[in-house]
């Protein structure tokens, strides 16, 4: 018999339905894992985007700004930013367009490779990303507290196994 918590968890109920339909074992585990990760993604992204809203940033744009801020010169080739963020160049280009319109980044010619364009933080971009990072770090700390060091570590380890098995790195 399932616990009251399992009976009130829609994902646990979905797993029970899967199992009752004859799709137990790895299928039920996989369905529950996928559904849980997708729901957790919605929760996490929603909380992060909420704190980024006053900065007029999405998480994707924040990630790009933070990546640039972590770089030695505050600038990277667009293709390298795309690779590091693990998104298509067109997605990075769209984010750059928006950030450029807001005066937070600028495109610059590469000093030694005429075929390459750099995306660079502006002074305003550096200020905004540092302020936004403080807000995002508060959310990261909340997630860390909710998961606990053991739970957070186990989650990351499990997802790393899945990522590696699928050629993510």
Can you tell me about this structure?
The protein has 169 residues and is mainly α. The protein has two domains: 1-55, no CATH class; 57-169, Arc Repressor Mutant, subunit A, CATH 1.10.10. Helices cover 71% and strands 8% of the residues. The chain has seven helices and three strands. It has helices at residues 4-8, 10-20, 25-52, 59-70, 78-85, 89-101, 123-165, and strands at 75-77, 105-109, 117-121. A three-stranded antiparallel beta sheet has the order 1-3-2. β2 (105-109) and β3 (117-121) form a beta hairpin. α2 (10-20) packs antiparallel against α3, α3 runs antiparallel to α7 and α4 (59-70) crosses α7. The chain is elongated and about 65 Å long. It starts with a helix and ends with a helix.
Protein traits:
single chain; 169 residues; mainly alpha; Arc Repressor Mutant, subunit A; 2 domains; 3-stranded antiparallel beta sheet; 3 strands
CATH topology category name of the largest domain: Arc Repressor Mutant, subunit A
Distance between the termini: 41 Å
Shape: elongated
Strand order of the largest sheet: 1-3-2
What percent of residues are in strands?
5-15%
- Average pLDDT level: 95
- Please identify which CATH superfamily of the largest domain we are dealing with: Winged helix-like DNA-binding domain superfamily/Winged helix DNA-binding domain
The topology string of helices and strands comes to HHHHEHHEEH
């Amino acid at each position: 018999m399932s616990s009251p918590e399992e009976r009130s968890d829609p994902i646990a109920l979905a797993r029970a339905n899967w199992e009752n339909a004859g799709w137990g074992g790895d299928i039920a585990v996989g369905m529950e894992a996928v559904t849980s990760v997708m729901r957790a993604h919605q929760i996490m992204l929603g909380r992060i985007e909420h704190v980024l809203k006053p900065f007029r940033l999405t998480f994707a744009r924040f990630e790009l700004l933070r990546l640039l801020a972590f770089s030695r010169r505050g600038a990277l080739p667009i293709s390298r930013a795309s690779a590091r963020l693990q998104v298509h160049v067109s997605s990075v280009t769209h984010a750059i367009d928006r950030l450029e319109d807001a005066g937070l980044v600028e495109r610059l010619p590469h000093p030694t490779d005429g075929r390459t364009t750099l995306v660079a933080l502006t002074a305003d971009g550096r200020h905004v990303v540092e302020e936004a990072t403080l807000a995002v770090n508060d959310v990261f700390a909340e997630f860390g507290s909710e998961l606990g060091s053991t739970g957070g570590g186990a989650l990351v380890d499990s997802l790393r196994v899945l990522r590696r098995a699928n050629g993510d790195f």
